[in-house]
Design brief:
This protein has 758 residues and is of the alpha/beta class. The protein is elongated and about 90 Å long. The protein is 32% helix and 19% strand. Belongs to the oxygen-dependent FAD-linked oxidoreductase family.
Length: 758
């Protein structure tokens, strides 16, 4: 008996006939509606009576929401693997991670050759499939660097670029019967997908043995390979042979295949709606129940399996096998690791990434993380400039799955935002209501980081900081306690979360009162920045004198290597009064020589829209940042010198103030309520020394305070720049209450007790 402990799944194997092209689509939708897990289609590209399977899969992906989709099996000789890899990854991204790849070496060679593909021998076809799997996996491996060069007699890559990475770890299932193909499955595939009508008694056991031996020889655990089975049969009242009889007879047969032959996925070949319903409603649940009971009594090991190669990549000091069972844990040896290890700016190497989906799971994940070796990083979106939402060798707790955006109260425009949501998603969700929340300048930024640090955005002068409109938080503190705080409930913690939240706990959601924002005017202007001093001074003066509806960010790029210095202004007029907008924008155009300018009337979601989140940052970024009370000729001269120093490849000025300065300095833990601008500089070098030296000489004398989101200088004196002493004293008191062990010590840490440093 062989039971690999795989979670049982059930699906359909449908005919892609084109006589009525809606029929297979309707059957796929029915498969989802009755609760099955998987929809698959035959793939015979040479068959004129069939729809093209990949086109059909794409159409069905748009018509369904939950089921996974696969070819059963795709004809690799007629589907170039490099193109198939990109197509599968693209559809996986579009469908939210619901694509699997069933692959075959090709069986009907007369028809294949008729389509213009040279005939291969059986051995050559197996080699070609092996090479195809290598090509597909290589293109998905965006964690590696440089162009791809994969050698192969039948399929190869000669400098292809990697990507896109799929949304989830796509399984590659191979239809196989002969020994050589079975060994290929054991070495390289994620699943074995034979069809029961083609098998003789004992073939499943013999096939499993061959696959297991090949897997072991390749350093894999045989349990890594899912065993799938295409089945056919007829429901009828009277018992018959095999799958020809009443539902209870089917149940007995499939339970036997699961427990004795290790089958984890049953795929029913039928185009009959009634058969699909009976299979879903009377067979699948009973098989699940009986297999679960048998596994419980025999103490069968179930769950994720990792290969010996993957296990060798584990970090010493992390007790991987004790991680909470309900929390998804991704390790360095897992294929999903590449998409999770890094942030937008920094390439990380955490020992494990935890992906909780609920607040309760955050509690469990945090409790386990505290017991492990190494640093603890917390991530919401991963876009942060500092790169502190990853680490090397520690635990990364990623709350990205907590991404719900829910309207709590229409009257007050109160919205609950999951910490893992991105601001692009928030803007898109709120747009139909005519609402918006000021939230930076990029839709990929996570809610949790911005809504606990400050929130200087492109509606800032009219709306204020993001935190200024936060009315409640749910936060998990270091001891695992869940707190819901607002102005009445634990008001001091509520105060601290608005500006220093990363030091006090893991925020799981925040409620914010959105603003009524009609369509806004969004303008981009590109300037010749050869005279950066004059440009900066005029831009800043225009913004300062403009009505609060205007917020503008200015990005200046240093010249060099034959490139002229350039500047781009991103500007929002927070109103749909285009006449007033034009008047102010024309003033802004006078800041310098204009190379390009565009303006459009758009919802705020057109400014900060949703973007795909894939982070593969490089070396830790080197940045400096500070707050400027105002722009003066002296400040402008030194900003120009900073840009021309050769140490700053990019200098940014973000307008703040306006409504953000209406609050008292002690209203939130972000105390900087008189400054007008944020100044930041980004180095193009890996070393800090050059930028730190020029910044300390040219910028620091003018700055008063610090906005942490753009700062990477680790020196402890930055803490007093960010939090003036009265604010810092209050925050230390909060740390002594809520984090006395200093668990949250990675993101500009505030120690519970004062030391010789701030």
């Amino acid at each position: 008996m062989t039971d690999y402990g795989h979670e049982l799944t059930f699906g359909t194997f449908l005919t892609p006939q084109n006589a009525d092209p809606t029929a297979p689509v309707d059957l796929a939708v029915l498969t989802e509606d009755v609760g099955l897990d998987l929809v698959t289609f035959q793939d015979h590209p040479y068959q004129p009576a069939f729809l093209d399977t990949w086109t059909l899969l794409s159409w069905v992906a748009a018509r369904t929401e939950r089921v996974h989709l696969a070819g059963n099996v795709l004809n690799v000789p007629l589907r170039p693997p490099a193109v198939l890899a990109r197509a599968a990854a693209s559809l996986d991204l579009l469908s939210g991670g619901r694509v699997e790849l069933g692959l075959g070496a090709g069986g009907f060679w007369d028809a294949i050759e008729g389509m213009g593909v040279p005939r291969l021998t059986l051995g050559q076809a197996v080699d070609a499939l092996d090479e195809a799997i290598t090509v597909i996996r290589a293109l998905w491996d965006t964690d590696a660097r440089g162009p791809l060069r994969v050698g192969g007699e039948h399929h190869h890559l000669a400098g292809a670029k990697r990507g896109p990475a799929p949304a989830h770890d796509i399984g590659i299932w191979v239809g196989a019967y002969k020994p050589r193909m079975l060994r290929l499955v054991g070495r390289s595939a994620d699943g074995w997908l034979p069809s029961l009508p083609y098998l003789q008694p004992g073939d499943l056991a013999r096939g499993n043995a061959a696959i297991d031996a090949a897997a072991t020889d390749a350093g894999r655990d045989p349990r890594e390979i899912r065993r799938l089975l295409n089945i056919t049969g007829t429901f009828r009242p009277a018992p018959g042979d095999g799958l020809d009889g009443p539902p209870e007879q089917w149940v007995d047969e499939l339970v036997r295949y699961a427990l004795e032959d290790g089958t984890g996925t049953f795929v029913l070949g039928t185009d009959d709606p009634a058969t699909i319903r009976t299979f879903a409603e009377q067979v699948a649940p009973a098989v699940r129940d009986q297999v679960a009971a048998a596994r419980a009594s025999s103490e069968t090991v179930t769950g994720a399996v990792r290969s010996a190669v993957a296990l060798a990549k584990r970090v010493e000091g992390i007790a991987y096998d004790t991680a909470p069972a309900e929390v998804t844990a991704v390790e360095p040896g897992d294929r999903a690791y590449a998409a999770l290890r890094s942030t937008y700016m920094r390439r990380g190497a955490p020992g494990v990434v935890l992906l909780p989906r609920t607040t309760t799971q955050v509690v469990d994940a945090l409790g386990w993380a505290r017991e492990q070796r190494g640093p603890l990083a917390v991530r919401s979106g991963g876009h942060g400039i500092s790169g502190r939402s990853t680490n090397d060798g520690g635990v990364l707790l990623d709350v990205g799955a907590l991404d719900q955006v829910t309207v709590v109260d229409e009257a007050t425009r109160r919205v609950r935002l999951g910490a893992g949501a991105t601001w692009g998603k928030v803007a898109t969700t709120l747009a139909p209501h005519g609402w918006a929340i000021s939230s930076g300048d990029y839709g990929g930024v996570g809610v949790g980081g911005l809504a606990t640090t400050g929130g200087i955005g492109l509606l800032g002068r009219s709306y204020g900081l993001t935190i200024d409109h936060a009315v409640a938080y749910e936060v998990v503190t270091a001891d695992g306690t869940v707190h819901v705080v607002d102005a009445q409930r634990e008001p001091e913690l509520f105060w601290g979360l608005r500006g220093a939240g990363g030091n006090l706990g893991i925020v799981t959601w925040v409620e914010i009162e959105a603003a009524e924002v009609p369509d806004v005017v969004f303008a981009t202007m590109t300037f010749d920045a050869s005279d950066a001093v004059r440009l900066v001074e005029r831009w800043a003066r225009t913004v300062r004198e403009a009505p609060r509806q205007l917020t503008s960010f200015l990005h200046l790029q240093a010249g060099g290597g034959g490139r002229q210095p350039l500047a781009q202004a991103m500007t929002v007029w927070a109103d749909d009064d285009t006449t007033a907008a034009v008047t102010v924008l024309e003033e802004l155009l006078g800041a310098g020589p204009v190379l390009d300018q565009r303006a459009t009337l758009t919802p705020y979601s057109g400014v900060v829209g949703p973007v795909a989140k894939h982070h593969d940052g490089g070396a830790p970024p080197v940045t400096r940042s500070g707050l400027l009370p105002t722009m003066t000729p002296d400040v402008a001269a030194d900003v120009g010198a900073l840009l021309g120093s050769g140490q700053a490849m990019l200098v940014q000025l973000r307008a703040t103030g306006g409504a953000g300065n209406d609050l008292a300095p002690d209203a939130t833990a972000y105390a900087h309520r008189h400054q007008e601008l944020v100044l930041s500089a980004f180095s193009g070098r890996g070393s800090r020394a050059g930028l730190d030296d020029v910044w300390d000489r040219l910028a620091s004398p003018h700055t008063d305070g610090l906005y942490l989101s753009f700062e990477t200088d680790p020196r402890p004196e930055r803490l007093l720049d960010a939090f003036p002493q009265p604010t810092l004293d209050r925050l230390r008191a909060l740390k002594r209450t809520y984090d006395p062990d200093h668990v949250f010590d990675q993101n500009f840490p505030i120690a519970p007790h004062s030391t010789h440093h701030p």
